[in-house]
């Protein structure tokens, strides 16, 4: 069994955030804070994880990776009580080292977790507190050291002037020996009239039992940051945003002006990419070298090959090949495969479709549930009519076809290789290769009829 486990406390409610959900589900760079914490734990090699959830548990369950277990804290009676709620998880891991951390601490990075664990093992501590040094420690518990150990954690409101001058604070994260954590939890008593149990009291309990209590200075003031209010959440977003920018600048990405730019920490962006103002890049996007994205574009879980250009458009959960151009004002909806050299112009929507190499969809067109070949030309105003009110059906278009302006292709229908449709046609039958379909009524011209009509209406 892996001898490292984690308990993440995520039962806090978001009342001060003015949300009915769990506080840990509030987002930093488009991702719940709890998602950051889970990734940091797994990034440090911790795969046995228990998340303590509260009343708003349902939305938490939706983001938990397979294998993560949960424990429920029905009543909020302090951090010590929250860890007690994970007793079943802990009982099966008495011989393990247990990381206890908060679900709203997104910047507890894997390197810090590992650094604290290494110190925990080297000093053979019963518990190792993760600490941080900050310029303004107001509101945080101070770490009091004595003889190389932690003598106490003193809350800001309880400290004297000398204690308040200490800049080393409790970051809210601990490594425990599993069996000793359970023993200390059994000895916890309520710390106030509300009957709350504080996890910090376990340090004093373990000291009195004769065990060593240590602290690891993480060397990074960001790790202690959490969020209880929307202002504090904004601060986390700004810090995370700048962290991502710094990484991308170092990797050769050009962001000439950052106004309105937000990029997920999970995004993989190659050197030479240019990101213009007003651009949002969400989720696990992959953007190849020399792409230009923006201004005012949104990518979500999208893959872009080298040299793509996306102007004022949306691309969601789709893959673009090399040298694809999109926009302005177009949308690539989920499950699209757009091949190399495709041109998608203004006011075009593509959904659940495959588009072959060097096909041109210039403007004012809807392509839905379509398998389109290479070198196809779409005129203005084309629609693949994929929904009959009951079911969705697919359209197939062969290589080199020409779809005239304002053509409706009523699925299921196939346009053969090299076939043409005349402008204004509504096509409901399969077209053979190299055929021409004219599906419109012949014009009828009545000389003078318009003048007669106006006179009848008193317009002449």
Structure keywords:
460 residues, alpha/beta, Spore Coat Polysaccharide Biosynthesis Protein SpsA, Chain A, UDP N-Acetylglucosamine Acyltransferase, domain 1, 15-stranded parallel β-sheet, 10 helices
How would you sum up this structure, described in words?
There is one protein chain. The chain folds into two domains: 4-224, Alpha-Beta Complex (Spore Coat Polysaccharide Biosynthesis Protein SpsA, Chain A); 253-437, UDP N-Acetylglucosamine Acyltransferase, domain 1. The model has no long low-confidence stretch (mean pLDDT 93). It is built from ten helices and 38 strands. The N and C termini lie far apart (94 Å). It is of the alpha/beta class and 460 residues long. Helix 7 (178-187) crosses helix 8 (201-208).
Shape: elongated
Helix- and strand-based class?
Answer: alpha/beta
- How would you state the average pLDDT, rounded? 93
| Name of the CATH homologous superfamily of the largest domain | Spore Coat Polysaccharide Biosynthesis Protein SpsA, Chain A
Helix content: 10-25%
Rg computed from alpha carbons, rounded to a whole number of angstroms: 31 Å
Q: Strand fraction band? A: 25-35%
List the helices and strands and how they pair.
Elements: E1 4-10, E2 27-28, E3 31-32, H1 33-43, E4 48-53, H2 57-61, E5 69-72, H3 79-84, H4 87-91, E6 97-102, H5 110-122, E7 127-133, E8 142-146, E9 149-154, H6 161-164, E10 168-177, H7 178-187, H8 201-208, E11 213-217, H9 230-250, E12 262-263, E13 268-269, E14 274-275, E15 280-282, E16 286-287, E17 292-293, E18 298-300, E19 303-304, E20 309-310, E21 314-316, E22 319-320, E23 325-326, E24 331-332, E25 337-338, E26 343-351, E27 354-355, E28 360-368, E29 370-372, E30 377-378, E31 383-385, E32 395-397, E33 402-403, E34 408-410, E35 413-415, E36 420-421, E37 426-427, E38 436-437, H10 449-456
Parallel strand pairs: 1-4, 1-6, 4-5, 7-11, 12-15, 13-16, 14-17, 15-18, 16-19, 17-20, 18-21, 19-22, 20-23, 21-24, 22-25, 23-26, 24-26, 25-27, 26-28, 27-29, 28-30, 29-32, 30-33, 31-34, 32-35, 33-36, 34-37, 36-38
Antiparallel strand pairs: 2-3, 6-10, 7-10, 8-9
């Amino acid at each position: 069994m892996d001898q490292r486990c984690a308990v993440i406390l995520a039962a806090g409610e978001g009342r001060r955030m003015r949300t009915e959900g769990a506080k840990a589900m509030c987002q930093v760079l488009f991702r719940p804070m709890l998602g950051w914490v889970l990734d940091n734990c797994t990034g440090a090699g911790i795969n046995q994880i228990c998340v303590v959830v509260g009343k708003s548990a349902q939305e938490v369950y939706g983001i938990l990776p397979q294998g993560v277990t949960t424990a429920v804290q029905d009543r909020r009676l302090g951090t010590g009580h929250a860890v007690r709620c994970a007793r079943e998880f802990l009982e099966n891991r008495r011989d393990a080292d247990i990381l206890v951390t908060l679900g709203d601490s997104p910047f507890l990075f894997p390197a810090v977790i590992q650094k604290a664990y290494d110190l925990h093992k080297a000093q053979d501590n019963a518990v190792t507190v993760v600490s941080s040094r900050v310029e303004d420690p107001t509101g945080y518990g101070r770490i009091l050291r004595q003889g190389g150990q932690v003598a106490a954690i003193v809350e800001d409101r309880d400290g004297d002037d000398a204690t308040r001058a200490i800049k080393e604070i409790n970051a809210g994260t601990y490594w425990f020996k599993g069996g000793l954590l359970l023993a200390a939890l059994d000895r916890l008593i309520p710390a106030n009239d509300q009957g709350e149990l504080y996890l910090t009291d376990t340090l004093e309990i373990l000291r009195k039992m004769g065990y060593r209590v240590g602290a690891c200075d993480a060397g990074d003031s960001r790790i202690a940051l959490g969020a209880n209010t929307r202002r504090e959440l904004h601060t986390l977003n700004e810090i995370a945003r700048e962290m991502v920018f710094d990484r991308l600048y170092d990797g050769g990405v050009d962001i000439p002006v950052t106004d309105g730019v937000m990029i997920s920490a999970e995004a993989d962006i190659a050197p030479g990419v240019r990101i213009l103002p007003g651009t949002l890049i969400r989720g696990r996007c992959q953007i190849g070298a020399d792409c230009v994205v923006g201004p005012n574009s949104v990518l979500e879980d999208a893959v872009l090959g080298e040299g793509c250009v996306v102007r004022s458009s949306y691309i969601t959960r789709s893959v673009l090949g090399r040298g694809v151009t999109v926009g302005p004002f177009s949308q690539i909806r989920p499950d699209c495969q757009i091949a190399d050299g495709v041109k998608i112009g203004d006011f075009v929507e593509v959904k659940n479709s495959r588009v072959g190499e060097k096909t041109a969809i210039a403007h004012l067109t809807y392509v839905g549930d379509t398998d389109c070949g290479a070198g196809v030309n779409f005129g203005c105003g084309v629609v693949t009519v994929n929904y009959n009110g009951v079911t969705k059906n697919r359209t197939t278009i062969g290589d080199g076809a020409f779809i005239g302006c304002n053509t409706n292709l009523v699925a299921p229908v196939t346009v053969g290789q090299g076939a043409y449709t005349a402008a204004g046609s509504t096509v409901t039958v399969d077209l053979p290769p190299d055929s021409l379909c004219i599906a419109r009524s012949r014009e009828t011209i009545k000389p003078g009829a318009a003048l007669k009509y106006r006179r009848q209406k008193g317009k002449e």
